[in-house]
Amino acid sequence: MEPQRRLVEPFYFSGNRVGCLLIHGFSGSPSEMRWLGERLAKLGWTVHGILLSGHGTTPEEMAKTRWEDWAKDAEAGVKKLRKTCDTVIGIGLSMGGLLTLHLATLGLIDGIVTMNAPMVLADRRTRYAQLFRPFMAFVGKPKSHRVTSDPTSVRTSIPTSVSAVSAATSSAETATLSPSATMTTTTTTTTIPSPTLSSKSTISGTEEAPSLERFVYERIPVDGLISLNRGIRQVRSKLTAITCPALLMQSRADLTVNPISVQIIKKQIQHVNPIVQYWEKSGHILTLGREREEVALKVHEFLLQFVTQESR
Hints:
By secondary structure, the chain is of the alpha/beta class. It has a single domain (3-306), classed as 3-Layer(aba) Sandwich (Rossmann fold). The chain is built from ten helices and nine strands. The strands form two sheets. Strands 1-3-2-4-5-8-9 form a seven-stranded mixed beta sheet, sandwiched between helices. A two-stranded antiparallel sheet has the order 6-7. The two termini are 31 Å apart.
């Protein structure tokens, strides 16, 4: 598979009978979850990373999709894993975490891992997307926000089509609102610093730090943002229906999701004794940040409770 296409393709790795459904974030792609997926697969878990409708193509295609479409994609991912797995765990980043919570409110999965799942977005203006929809179809990152002040985020401009991809990395997932509806598309290849653990354990199998690439839109459809806000409200109102074990992870330096979100979730699902894990050195894209090795190991430790003699 050509490197550019690999960034946006869904992936599936067969393992034991505990299936991990990996769900990427709003305007992102499976590239956000592939590194974690490969890590978990090497540890023996079955892994399925899905591509949400309207993602991995162009912002114009995404503008045709809504929360309901993304929810159906997540539900379809569970069904696929159920064909070979006795247990399915939802693992989601940002909006992917929100979708994981959605699946849990329906009782479709056996455990949840959320990473920077939004209950409150950091940019307050996103709440008023409905008001400026009559005047613009897309919002983008102004130049002052493309290089984020988050020290753990990677500075990059993001391509809007697969053919244009040479790389993309972990800048904020939901763009800071700007009145500009058109933006110049450029690409950047960035190598993320290797974590503190041995570099021999990297997916590439080399001694050098791997080049971790991410495909994400730099323009966001306003209709999609409106729909995301609706999804947040819907899920938040149903959190008390969750009955499965939960690992809730949050980056303290998150510039996209207000870190208070994890406490909101915790309070609503306190009856399942959720585990809350904060990360000090990572930005919004926790799966590609400096602590990605530690994140993967934390997820692995959480998954171990679901292993039975039959699921090995």
